[in-house]
Amino acid sequence: MAQRFDNVKLEKGMYHEAGKSFTQVLEKLDPSEQYRGTALEGLDAYQRQLKRFDIRVKGAGSDLVDKFFSTAQSAVLFPEYIARAVKVGMEEANILPDITATETLIQGMDYRSITSVPQDEKALKQVAEGAAIPQTTVRTRDALVKLHKRGRMLVASYEAIRFQKLDLFSVALRQIGAQIGRMHLEDAIGVILNGDGNGNPAQTSSVETKGKLTYQDLLAFWNSFEPYQLNTLLVGADTMPQLLGLSQMQDAVAGLDFHGTGRLITPLGAKALRSSAVPKGSIIGLDKNYALEMVKAGDVMVEYDKIIDRQLERAAITTISGYAKIFEDASRVLTV
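Request: output the structure for the sequence above.
Response:
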């Protein structure tokens, strides 16, 4: 039987365990399974430690930042609080799940993705008796996935924040997370447009009349995706009004959904997402199920030593990630 949550000894070394997050280390010492059927069911090991030290991080009754530093052990929980608040900000308004087919977590900095090359991809041939079956070749890419370190520097002395409410401090941390999330999106769009280093930039087509988007242009763009499906559109702020201004977008159902929920639909059934990271005059189309792989080297990282020791003058909050194309023809660009 593992230790109960109120007997777990917390120390900085728990952040150093290779291949495991702080919460995973806590879960090993204090498994959540032993709390089934109790009042603590539904809390993970970190949340139980917050309860142990009576630290409230949400709501009007949230505690001061200083509450984390009431004991040497409770101070160990503060970097994880920062990381979790930043991740919430990264997930707010995050459209990366709408454009990535899969997410790969690696331990290290070197990663080589795979590519699949089917014979006669667009042909559905009957295989005669004794005839060779068409092949799909899966091989590793020639170039490694380029991983980028993205983050923000949190500059604040302990004295400056110790009497701030944790709920308010979380807002600032979420904003840092949102900024990091936008950086990730820019990286993803860059790979879609320019390729991942394996000579696979997106195929580009243009509208019939430069500067004017028509429904016929969208139809031709949609038709070019065979055998994939155009199910996601990334549109810049300059091009979105043209898309929304099409007469086919102004029917009652499309208007009701947009005005009522803010969700955009297109006449082709694709999900339209607005992003300032899309180059001016471009619409990126993709089949989100086959286009892009997100590669992450660990989770959100925080300089825990400085924070725990109350030297929160300059603490880096970073993530390391990159993107690789899976099927080259699953993403294309329409230039307006």
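Residues 166-194 form the longest helix (29 residues).
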